[in-house]
């Protein structure tokens, strides 16, 4: 088995807003349907809550923070699933069931196995 | 044959099969390639001394498998732990199935179209990165990079080495057909080089098309691809004369066409059309065009209006500069050169575009302009045979131009 990180890119929404309730329910359904394959998952607060952290020079240097996401894009990173699958075909089949796949896009990245 | 020649010959002819078998048994493209490389080196060391073994391919396959096991052991020792259970399966399955698996892996939809083609050319056809760069009109360095990235993705993301399930086939087949067709085209019309066609790439493409059709006989698209390749290949012997010079369609000795291949191609095309209930696909249309040419006993018998109709359909469902250019040629034959010249204005300029425009202009007795167009065509890369042909045409048009000028100039 291999692990894949499925990153969901969608409109930059506040998942707790009442109008997101229906969509959030779809995500919950996906979570239940594929509980065996999902090893971890998270939904993220909107990008306006993000902070980018950089350290000047080298380790121990001055910590510089900036408000907002690392990259401004039309579709934002709004959550992830850590998926276990036999191969990429299986991982793609699972990712295609995440609501973000039709409301935005899902980026599937293979995870380097721990030695 | 010397030991060295035997190694080279076995790798050239059987290399793809050996590699395909190895990839199945070790489940890793890079490892399999390394193992085949080491087996080749071993053969280069052994065969000149011991003589060529009775079954060179079997020798290389078994040796490559041993080398693969060595490589896995070395790797395990290096990382200090057991790798994921790499089981070396017995060589029990027919090798053609290995090849088909390899085809579907190289043509996996999660790889970019350009990567699929590069990978197929490298892995299935054994073309060098330089040759692939020539086919794909890019650089050797860019090709190497593309291949490395594709292999890394296959390994890291675990693109499975398998033939897709029945239900997935409609989504997976077009990519495979695209690669086979591109492969044939690459062999049939390389951009430069001494030979006008590379026999091995064409034969390899036809073999893959046969294989795909044999394994998926009810799928109309692979059937149409095989029909198209056979109908094109059937006319190949007449494309060059005994001196290696290009012979255009109107001057070809049609008795040199392969009648059996034409009959089979037409039968396959009909079968493919019967099996598809929707709009014709691009391969069916191209095969139908090839069939129209093949059916005509003489050039004068060609049904140009029908060919124009088929090109119109082709351009509407699968637009490409090559299809538009060929449509213009068909229009010139079916109707008039004025209409054809007008159509050319909408087609992107290429060496072949200049050569085609030259012929159109010559029909309108505009010989000076025609010669200038061929000059443009001659500025680009081409095969030697193509170059000779264009040079001959250019000289012909220049001489016609001077005769025409003499005729119209007032005499004193």
UniProtKB/TrEMBL annotation, chain A:
InterPro entries: Dimeric_a/b-barrel, YCII. It holds the Pfam family YCII. Signal peptide: none annotated. Residues 19-113 form the YCII-related domain. SUPFAM superfamilies: Dimeric alpha+beta barrel. It comes from the Bacteria. Belongs to the YciI family. PANTHER family: BLL7171 PROTEIN, BLL7171 PROTEIN-RELATED. This is YCII-related domain-containing protein. It comes from Kribbella antiqua.
UniProtKB/TrEMBL annotation, chain B:
Residues 172-272 form the DUF6596 domain. It comes from the Bacteria. SUPFAM superfamilies: Sigma2 domain of RNA polymerase sigma factors, Sigma3 and sigma4 domains of RNA polymerase sigma factors. Residues 17-77 form the RNA polymerase sigma-70 region domain. Residues 104-154 form the RNA polymerase sigma factor 70 region 4 type domain. The keyword Ribonucleoprotein does not apply. Gene3D superfamilies: 1.10.1740.10, Winged helix-like DNA-binding domain superfamily/Winged helix DNA-binding domain. Keywords: Sigma factor, Transcription, Transcription regulation. One of its GO terms (molecular function) is sigma factor activity. GO terms for biological process: DNA-templated transcription initiation. PANTHER family: BLL6612 PROTEIN (PTHR47756:SF2), BLL6612 PROTEIN-RELATED (PTHR47756). Belongs to the sigma-70 factor family. ECF subfamily. This is RNA polymerase sigma-70 factor (ECF subfamily). It comes from Kribbella antiqua.
């Amino acid at each position: 088995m291999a692990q894949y990180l499925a990153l969901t890119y969608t409109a930059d929404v506040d998942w707790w807003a009442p109008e997101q309730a229906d969509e959030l329910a779809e995500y919950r359904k996906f979570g239940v349907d594929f509980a065996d394959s999902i090893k971890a998952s998270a939904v993220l607060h909107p990008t306006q809550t993000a902070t980018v952290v950089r350290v000047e020079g080298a380790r121990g240097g001055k910590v510089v923070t900036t408000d907002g996401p690392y990259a401004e894009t039309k579709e934002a990173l709004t959550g992830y699933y850590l998926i276990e699958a036999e191969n990429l075909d299986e991982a793609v089949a699972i990712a295609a069931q995440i609501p973000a796949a039709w409301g935005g896009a899902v980026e599937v990245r293979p995870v380097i196995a721990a030695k | 044959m010397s030991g060295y020649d035997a190694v080279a010959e076995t790798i050239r002819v059987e290399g793809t099969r050996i590699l395909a078998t190895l990839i199945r048994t070790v489940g890793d493209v890079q490892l399999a390639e390394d193992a085949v490389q080491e087996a080749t080196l071993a053969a280069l060391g052994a065969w000149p001394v011991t003589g060529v073994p009775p079954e060179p391919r079997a020798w290389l396959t078994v040796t490559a498998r041993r080398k693969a096991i060595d490589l896995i052991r070395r790797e395990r020792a290096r990382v200090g732990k057991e790798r994921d259970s790499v089981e070396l399966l017995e060589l029990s399955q027919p090798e053609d199935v290995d090849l088909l698996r390899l085809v579907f892996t190289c043509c996996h939809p999660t790889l970019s179209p350009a990567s699929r083609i590069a990978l197929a050319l490298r892995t299935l056809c054994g073309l060098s990165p330089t040759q692939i760069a020539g086919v794909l009109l890019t650089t050797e360095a860019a090709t190497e990079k593309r291949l490395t990235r594709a292999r890394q993705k296959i390994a890291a993301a675990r693109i499975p080495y398998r033939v897709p399930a029945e239900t997935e086939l409609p989504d997976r087949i077009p990519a495979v057909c695209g690669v086979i067709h591109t492969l044939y085209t690459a062999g049939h019309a390389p951009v430069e080089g001494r030979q006008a066609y590379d026999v091995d790439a064409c034969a390899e493409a036809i073999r893959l098309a046969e294989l795909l059709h044999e394994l998926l006989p009810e799928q109309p698209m692979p059937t149409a691809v095989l029909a198209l390749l056979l109908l094109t290949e059937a006319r190949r012997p007449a494309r060059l004369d005994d001196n290696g010079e290009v012979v255009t369609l109107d001057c070809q000795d049609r008795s040199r066409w392969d009648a059996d291949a034409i009959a089979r191609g037409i039968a396959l095309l009909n079968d493919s059309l019967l099996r598809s209930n929707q709009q014709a696909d691009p391969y069916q249309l191209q095969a139908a065009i090839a069939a129209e040419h093949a059916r005509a006993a003489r050039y004068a018998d060609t049904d140009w209006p029908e060919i124009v109709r088929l090109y119109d359909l082709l351009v509407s469902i699968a637009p490409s500069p090559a299809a538009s250019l060929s449509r213009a040629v068909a229009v010139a034959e079916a109707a008039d050169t004025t209409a054809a010249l007008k159509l050319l204005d909408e087609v992107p300029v290429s060496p072949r575009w200049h050569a085609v425009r030259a012929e159109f202009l010559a029909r309108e007795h505009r010989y000076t302009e025609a010669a200038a167009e061929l000059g443009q065509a001659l500025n680009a890369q081409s095969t030697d045979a193509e170059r000779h042909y264009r040079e001959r045409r250019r000289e012909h048009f220049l001489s016609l131009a001077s005769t025409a000028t003499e005729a119209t100039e007032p005499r004193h």
